[in-house]
Structures are given as C-alpha cells and as structure tokens.
Amino acid sequence: MTGGGGLQGEQFNRLFTLFMGITGFFYVLVIVGMLAGIAIRGRAAGTERGERLARTALLGWIAAVVLGLTVLTVGSYASERRVSAAIPARPPLEVQITANQWWWDITYKNAVPANELRTANELHLPVGVPVKVTLKSNDVIHSFWIPSLAGKQDLIPGRVNDLLLLPTRTGQFRGQCAEFCGTQHAHMALDVTVEPVASFRRWQQAQLAPAAPPSTPLAQAGHDLVMSQQCASCHAIAGTPASARFGPDLTHLASRRSIAAGTLPMTRGHLYAWIADPQGVKPGNNMPYIGFDSAKLHAVVAYLQGLK
Amino acid sequence: MSSRCRARLAALAALALLSACDREERQSRAQPVPETLPTPRQSILQPGVPARTAADPRARAYENNSYQMSQGQLLYQKMNCSGCHAHGGGGMGPALSDAEWRYGGSMEEIVATIDQGRPNGMPSWRGKLTEQQMWQLAAYVRSLSAQPRQDVLSSRPDAPSSTEPATLQSRQPVVPSSPAGVQGTSR
Amino acid sequence: MKKQRLVAMLAAAAALLVISAIAIIVVRSRAPQPVAQAPLTPYAGSSGAVTARSVGDGDDGQWTMAAKNFASTRFSTATEINTANVSRLKVAFTFSTGVAKGHEAAPLVVGGTMYIVAPFPNNVYALDLTKPGAPTKWTYKPRPLSAAQGVACCDVVNRGAAYANGRIFFNTLDNRTIALDAATGKELWQTKLGEINLGETMTMAPLVAEGKVIVGNSGGELGVRGWLAALDADSGKIAWRAYATGPDKDVLIGNGYHPFYAMDRGRDLGVTTWPPEAWKQGGGNAWGWVSYDPKTRLVFYGTGNPGPWNPEQRPGDNKFTTGVFARDIDTGAARWYYQTSPHDLFDHDSVNEQILLDMPVKGRMREVMVRPERNGYFYVMDRGTGEVLSATPFGHVTAYKGVDLKSGRLIPNPAMEPREGQVVRGICPSAPGMKDWNPAAFSPLTGLVYIPHNNLCMDWGSYEASYIAGTPYVGADVKYYAGPGGNRGVFTAWDPVRGRPVWEIKEDLPVWSGALTTAGGLVFYGTMDGWFKAVDQRSGKLLWQFKTGSGIIGQPISYRGPDGHQYVAVLAGVGGWPGAIVSNNLNTADATAANGWGVAMADLPQKTTAGGMLYVFSLSR
Q: What is the CATH number of domain A217-305?
C-alpha cells in the first residue's frame, strides 16, 4: 500500500479502502450465504419454500453484485476525475527521467533551454505543483515507482511514457525501480524530496550553477585527475571540460543524499569506498575499478566533496 | 522395473543434466595481473629466428566470454568507437569487420592498439579507459570479424540501429586469434 | 423575385470561384515541385536581365581562387573551347599527386604556373605551364601531424588554395594556415589556429580579400566549436575570430547587427538557445565557402551543423549554427544572420556556396545571393539585409514542409522528426543533403545556376551521444539510399528567377564534384566513377566525356595557358565523405559505414579505385 505524499497516492489509498470494503462485504456475504445454505439444505430441499428461497437469494445476489460494481466504477471514475481536474494538461513543471542500468538520469525541462537542469538519482519536487514526468530508458525496461506519491509506470527503450504527479505533503521519500532490470535492480533507488516552492527554487538555482572550482591544492590535484583520467570519459561536470554522458552528472554530487542510486549514504568514507572499489559495493555496475593509489584517491575525494 | 523406480531414475537423470549446465563466471572486477606480461610486438619481421613470446592469459579469459563481450559492445558505443569505425564497417577509422588488421588482430594486439594509439589517427586511450575496459573492447572488436560462439554474442544492439543484431549477421571468415608467425605475437 | 435569383446565382458563382481558387492554391502548394522528368528538356530561354555581378578583376584567363571570383560564379569567359568543337578535347598533360585520398581541391593558375594542394599530407605543387609537360617548379611539404587524420570527419580532403599579391595561402589538416611565396615556394608565415586533440581540422579553401585571409575550421561531427577567422595576409596575425556559438562578444555581434527576422534577434542567443554548456561543443563550423562583396565590404559564409546530430540532446534553436552570416571584413562584426535550419534535425549544414548575383525579383532588380542549400531549398536572399526572397525545393523533400517567408523559419515535418530510441524512415533529403559542399556554377549566358547534387533519402535512429573531446559526437545511426527514381545523383540547371529547373541529368552516383561554366556555352562536371563531362548549357546535351583513372570529386577550372590557348583542368581522385568507401577501404556490409554510406555506395569499389591525378585538357591541334 502506498503512502499519502501525493494526490495520486491519496486517491489510490481511498480507492483501495473502497475496494477492500466492497470486496470484504462480498466475501462475508458469500461465506454467510454458504453457511446458511448448508444449514437450510436438509430441511427445505425440494420443497416449494426452498425454491422460493433460492429465487429470492439469486435476485438478492444479482442486485448486490450490480450495486457493488456500480459503486466501484463510480468511485474509480470520481477518483480519476479528481486527479485530472487537479493537474492541468500541460503542468508547469516537466521532468524527464531516463533510466539506465542502474541509475536515474534526471532533466528538468525549461522553455529556455539554457535553464535546463540535469542531475541524477535525486528528484526534488515543489509541494502542490503538478509535475509531468516523461519516462525513457537507455537500455532495458525499468519501472518508475515512488510509492508515497503515485503508482508505477514503466520506462521502455524506444518509447516515451509519462506520468502526472501532484505532491501534497513535504518530506523525503524513496523511489525504486519496480521492474527487474539486472543484477543491481535492488540498488536502483531514487531519493525524492518534496519541499516548499521557495526552497525548491533555491535548490534549482544552486543546481543550475556550474561546479564549484577546487578550493584547496589537494582538491585542485583531484580536479586535474578527474579531468585527465578515466572519470571524464564517462561523467559530466558543468563548468569543466568533462562532458560525457555515460555515467551520472557529477556537477553537484556532494549535495546529494546518496551515492550510486541509493546504494550508499553520501559520506566521505562512502565516497572513498565507492571510488576505490565500485565493484565491491555494487557488483556488475558500469563504474570500473580504476585502481587509484591512496594519494590520488585522497585528491579525487577532496575534489568531489567540494562539488556541493 | 517398477514404474516408481523408473520415475526416480528419470528424476536423477534430469538432475545430472542440470548439473552439466555450467554457468559462465561473471568477472565484474579485473583480476590483478602480474606486471611482467610482454607488450605485443608491432612487427612480424624479426630478423633471423623469431623469438617466442608467452601469450597474455587475459586474452583467453576475455575472448568468447559473453559478459565481457557485451560490456565491450556497450563501451564501443559509449566511448564513441562507433563514431569512427561504425558498426564494424569503418568511416573515419578503418573497417573492423573485414579480415585486414593494420596493427594485428590478436587480442593482445588490439588491446595494445587501444592503449597506445596508432600514428595515423587512432587515439591513445591510456588513462581514459581502464585495462579491463580495453580487454572487453578487444573481445567485442574481434567478434566483429571473427566467428565467435553464437551463444556468447549479444542479440541486443545497443543503439536503435538499422543494422541487424550480431546474432543474425553473417560473419567474415574466421581470423585466427593469434595467427602465429603472421600477426605479431606467437603462442 | 427575379432580382433575388440573380443575386443568389451571382453569389453562388462567386463562392464557386473562391472555392476553386483556394483549391488551386492548396493543390499547388501541396503538389511536389514539377521537375522536368526528361533529362533533356530544351532550354526555354531565360530573361536576359539575369547577370552575375562582376566583382574583382576581369577574367584574364587566370584562376586565382577556388570559386573563380568573389561572387563565386565559377564562370570562365574563355570561348576557344565551345559547343561546336568540344568533341575535339584531348588530354594535354597529367600529373600525379601520389595521394590515394579524396581530391576535392580546385587547381589555381596564375601567370604561367599552376598550383595544386593535395589532400593530407597537403603537399603543394607548382607546375610550370610555360614548359612542355608542365614540369614541377617547386614543391612545398607542410608535414602535418599524422594523427590529424584520425579527427577528419569525412576523408582527409583539402578544398584548395587562394592566390593574392604573389602569395599562395592554404590550410593544413592539422589547423595551420600557411602563406607561400608563389614564385619560389618559400614559406612566408604560418599560423596555428586549432587543436587536433579537440577534434579540430581545417579543410576549406581560404578566401583572400582586402589584405585578409579568411579561413574557418571543420569538426562538426566531433563537437568542435566553429569559427571563422581573418588573418593579416602580410603577417599571418589573427585580425579577428568569430565563433558560431557562445556569448555575443565571441560571435562578434554588436550594435551593427541587424538580422532581418525576429527569430535571429536577441542577446547572447549563442548561449540561451542551448542547454547549459552545450554551446561549447556546439559545432557550427565554417568549413564551406566564403563570398565577398567589395561594394559593401561584407563577407558571406555559412555555418555547419550543430553537435551532436541527435537533436533531442540540444533543445532550442542552437544559434548560430546552420545559418548564413554577413560580416564586415575589417572587424568581423556581424551585419546580419539568417538561420536556414533552426534546431537542425538532420545534419543539414549551411556551408554551401553563395553566388552573388544582380537579378530581377518580382520585377525589381535586387542585389541577391543564391544558395542551393543542403536542406533541399534553393534560397534567393537579399545580400544587404538577409531577407529571404524565395526558397524553392530543387529535389524531393519530405523532411520539411517549406519555408515560411514571413518569419523566415524552415517548417519541419513532424512525422520525420528524429526520436531517441527509434528509427525514422524515408527522410529526404538525407544527411549529406540535397547538395553537399560541391559547388554550383553560374552562367550569365543563360542566367542559370548549374547544381551538382544528390537524390538521397535516409533512415535515422538517434541515441544519446556522450561528449569525449576529440572523438566523434554524433548520436545517430543513419543509412542512405537513392531517392525517387533510383538515381543517387542529379545535375540540374536551375532558373533562379523563375525558381524552377530547366533541365536535369540523372546520374547513377551522387554528383560530388564541382561545376564549371564557360563562355563557350559549356558546363563541366565529373562523376564518382571517373567520367569528366562537358554538357551544353542550354540543352543539357552531353557533348564530350572522358574517363579518368579514379572518381572525380574535384572542382574543374578553365584557364588560358601561356600559349594563349584555353585549357580545362580537374583533379581526379575518389574520396570525400561517400568516396571514403573506396579511399579508406571500408566494409559495405555495414550500412552505417562512413556515417551512413555503406549500402548507398556498395557498388563504388567495383566502379572506381583510389588515386590522385590532375588531368588538363585542350583542343587537339
């Protein structure tokens, strides 16, 4: 069952309760009817009274089924109406999410392309603002699921799916790939933060800025390593020559809550662990074992930690 | 023989068959290798009696390994190899799906070419790719021209391509993995 | 009653008239441009008012720049070889460049010397035309870096040199512009302008005017930021360099910038019409042709495709790629700009030649430039303002629905728009366009523009490209094939005034050579299987042809030799983008070989072999 962080989630809960109630009622009805039938069987079988009783029971049954189905249909319809009434056809915010094995590539679309924002594995949404989420996949079928906000939607290679969201409550939620997509399917999580509009705007502004330049000599050495070594073959860091798109965007890596799509919490120690041995942390993922010695590792982590 | 006995025997036979299905080992982390491995020669011309060099054990480990080959296929696109060599047909760079190898067609030689670069435009990927990634790429590059085992080929192209998946393509004649005395290192 | 009926009838008649007029308009706008299907439709006679603007020196039998003159007409006034005697054309002498790559250059002839720039390694040869057999006078070897070959997108070509004031100027593949003493071959200066590790190369033919050498870079398939630079012809110092993307100060956009259309106006469009940072890898390379108008001191040139090819990665108009710039030659300041393909979808670079003409448009003489564009439209533009006066398709177009002359915008066909992860089929023209770099020629005799071009369609599948500096940045898997009719190439005589073809010759292979017109009523061009042809300007009738040793993708020229006789010269040597199938020995089993030419050129290896050779023809005496 989903939580109540978004309009769809709430409606889903309401519908779920309704379904549970009605199906529960029919379950009880069937059991009671069966018990009653067993009790009556011996005495009224074959008699005219028995025939009458059976006819009445059948009519009652049909009426109950029709009524139940009607309530369910009307309930679903009303719920759907509620959601579509609350979310305009062209919501003010559009987010494109591309699934990869095993991480999420996130782009906030903008009418001015220069204000497009690209990040990874962390979704920020303003509360009370309808969002259109377009879903794509670069490799296999994945499924986008933030249980607290809405139901699942598949991400299919070569197709564009979309999903409308309306978060109603601030908070931090967890999203998860909900379609088996390879060995690290379980480690394909999405950190979701629903926040007031003002703080969302602040986040957006901060994320749009190019990466912070290295502030210490150690970080500078790390910057030089990231630019000249394997890192820049796969990752992009805005404001630097690194612009590759194979791995997640690292521009504001240190501002995120987790590393490697929810695999590890974002701490200095975990950054070390991840870069030193990504295959030990998340076997089979596409980040290779590079084999930095400790001096290089210190430098790279110092630089990455500065990417707030 | 009773029918019960027969059923038991059948079940045993099925079990025995299952145990024969050897699952391919997936190496996601490169194994540490001794640093004394030879660099492949770039010329087959060795005046006088040719010296024999030991083969790199990694060549066997990566070639005809389904996982490594499909990782190589992924890298082939993501590292923009396809931009120059297309899907084997070539373009800015030479074709990889024909039987001609300018700098040798063995696993070791292909890795050396990726690592060192070549003077007529092949960039050097040293420090831009890990050694493991180079071996994976070499395994895939060899599969473009040689005839790898059909069961290790990836049936899924990594790009929305008008070309057929590898499993459906007709292959060029087999190029020996290490044509001793013809292309560089001999085994 | 009677009167009422009459009014009703009149109204009905009027309605009928209006409806039929609308229907006619609709039908006419929908119907494909009627193209003369017969290869040889008789020339109907064009208005004699069409004249090429005469710029620069009068024709004295020399050929000092690739496009012949600043107006880029490629028209020679020599009449010795003409429609009556062309059948007597014979080889006068030949010269091998020793390079088996694509020869796209135009030879130059100044005084009694011919100058040739070969493809990589870009050796320059001076041939002494005063002596029998034209022996080599001097050779200059710039020795470009070998590695540069690895970042040259479409074969290691060079499109020619330029001559001015006793100097030869040319570009090397590894981004140097070099000035040589034309008499001795001594190097006077060289300036390094780009970096091969970022994917930059230089292949274009410079234009020299007002003491400035105008050059641009190539590398649109490697995410190279495009620029056009002016070097001081005496010292080689960079006078100005104008980028095609980025903030206005990099693009040299200032107060004097007055584009005709609203879509090209605004501050820092080179940044705001791109996703963040994308303009740094945005392409827009000036690898094509430059024209110059001495009267207004304006330089005209086009910018190449935006990077990457995959359009979904770069939402926005992607200024200032795939458009035409007019710049002041002294300062480089942009006067106007017009974007032919905003948010380019199909690699439709806008680098083709602009032929400067004075011609009547709607009854009024206008100073125009005409551009047979890669996107399939023949543009007639006011060269003072950048206004599009007409844009007519000169072949089969499905990719676009036309050009809105009010807003200036090209209207894409939504059904053909590439989508990531999908393959879109039947896009015409293909990525090499209705016409690639291979320049057209104009003849004042007929008032027609002679266009060597393609008839190709394509399938396009796009995916996200990852930018790694110095490697290809494309993100599309493409496959070309012949368009309607099955012929891959066409040679069209186009009436720029009426906006229609007068005759056309269907060629089996794409026509990748330049065209040459002469006052003898002839037009010359070559085919990729090695036929060098002379055709009647008026009728399109084939009058003479000669089979050279390798496919022709060069630019033919004509000159008057020291003996006073007329000669025609062309470099043969297959290569270039489609010809790389042969010159790079590619495997055509892969349809995507050479960025999409694999299947389209599968028969080329049977039709020609590589090899670079100069052929010079004259009348047998």
A: 2.60.40.420
